[in-house]
Design goal:
This protein is an alpha/beta fold and 379 residues long. The chain contains 16 helices and 11 strands.
């Protein structure tokens, strides 16, 4: 198996220091946002939120002489559902995974954005052609492409490093505690791939109870000492402390942390799961017009490039690629540097329809294992 490692120290340090001037998008017109209006933008915190704050939140505030209140959450659609059902919508723009965007849209929890007028790409490409597949739906506008991989302790396995997704579950050859996110996504795909299921057959297999049982049985191999995380920095801390020797990890969070002096881990990309995030507006937002203007600004060619230069996720606009440095291009998830055969693209439509069923099975497995969910709500 081919193994790809997140570069350490020099290159990532240079990227962490790099920033693109927050130029006004070429489509920007006279201010249309009431400067007295304060919209609330909700996203994941940590390095990702920092990239958004510097990439487009602060530039939007400067451009429109307005204020954006920023809050963080742990993902999912439960809080949006509670706000909409209670007619107490206090969020205006939310950063959602693609599956959550589709679920919330289907439930009528998001405003219809199918008619939103988005600026053309900086190169003139119409927005409908500029965004990558899946980045536009009836209730969402794309933000980033990102991926989940796994990291291992270099001190523990430096002489015999793991290199495949199967190695994550091989506790005989690679003994020690593991950590995974407190969610069925990714880990259940990994379990089936590690058990020999072809990548194209993963979701059809999970359609069946036998397939779910097969995934959970494979996951039993990592029960001993298993830790759960919900914060994107959670696995980094667990690896640094030595509490675990391997963990699933958001790849760009690992890249950001890899430049730190006490970072003693490497990342394996075999089997990494690729996903998208999209902006959505909760149904009943009192500031829908301002929310749409924020989304137009934040999803422009320039804004997405600005964000990515602070944290190398993949921009959802193809026109943003020309604004990125070669160093950044080498690290983003959709870069040719990362061979496609190492990856599996998360089937967001499938997860939107099946997350509840697999979440129930996953949590039952967690309960039977005597594990407790982690605290924290950050990414």
């Amino acid at each position: 198996m081919t193994k790809e490692l997140v570069p350490k120290k020099g290159l990532v340090s240079a990227i962490a220091l790099m920033c693109v001037a927050s130029a006004q998008p070429t489509w920007a017109q006279d201010n249309v946002v009431n400067p007295n209006t304060e919209i609330t933008f909700v996203s994941w915190t940590g390095p990702y939120m920092r990239s958004q704050m510097l990439g487009f939140v602060r530039p939007f505030e400067d451009q429109y002489n307005s204020r954006v209140n920023v809050e963080h959450y742990a993902g999912g659609i439960e809080e949006i559902r509670d706000q909409v059902e209670s007619a107490n919508v206090v969020w205006d723009v939310v950063d959602l995974t693609q599956a959550d965007s589709l679920r919330a849209c289907e439930e009528g929890l998001l405003e219809d954005l199918s008619g939103i007028s988005l600026p053309a790409g900086k190169d003139g490409t119409p927005a409908s052609e500029d965004f990558v597949e899946g980045a536009l739906n009836d209730c969402g506008v794309g933000v980033i492409q990102w991926s989940t991989a796994y990291a291992y302790s270099e001190a523990t396995f430096g002489d015999n490093p793991p290199s495949s997704i199967a190695d994550f579950f091989d506790t005989e050859s690679y003994p020690g505690a593991r950590a995974i996110r407190n969610d069925p996504t990714v880990i259940m795909e990994w379990a089936l791939m590690a058990d020999g299921v072809a990548r194209d057959d993963v979701y059809p297999t999970l359609e069946t109870q036998e397939g779910v049982d097969r995934a959970l049985a494979k996951m039993d191999a990592i029960k001993s000492g298993l830790q759960l995380w919900s914060s994107g920095l959670g696995p980094v801390r667990l690896l640094k402390s030595g509490d675990v020797v391997m963990s699933s990890v958001w790849a760009t969070t690992a890249a950001s942390a890899a430049s730190e002096d006490d970072a003693d881990f490497q990342v394996v990309f075999d089997g990494r799961v690729m996903e998208l995030d999209l902006f959505g507006v909760p149904k009943g937002s009192r500031y829908k017009a301002e929310a749409l203007e924020f989304i137009r600004f934040a999803s422009s060619t320039e804004s997405l490039a600005n964000m990515v230069n602070y944290l190398p996720n993949g921009p959802t606009r193809q026109s943003s690629m020309s604004l990125l440095s070669d160093e950044t291009l080498a690290l983003i998830p959709n870069s040719p540097a990362y061979s496609e055969n190492l990856s599996i693209v998360s089937d967001a439509t499938w997860w939107a329809e099946n997350h509840g069923r697999l979440e129930e099975a996953f949590q039952a497995w967690i309960s039977e294992s005597g594990l407790q969910g982690p605290s924290g709500t950050t990414r």
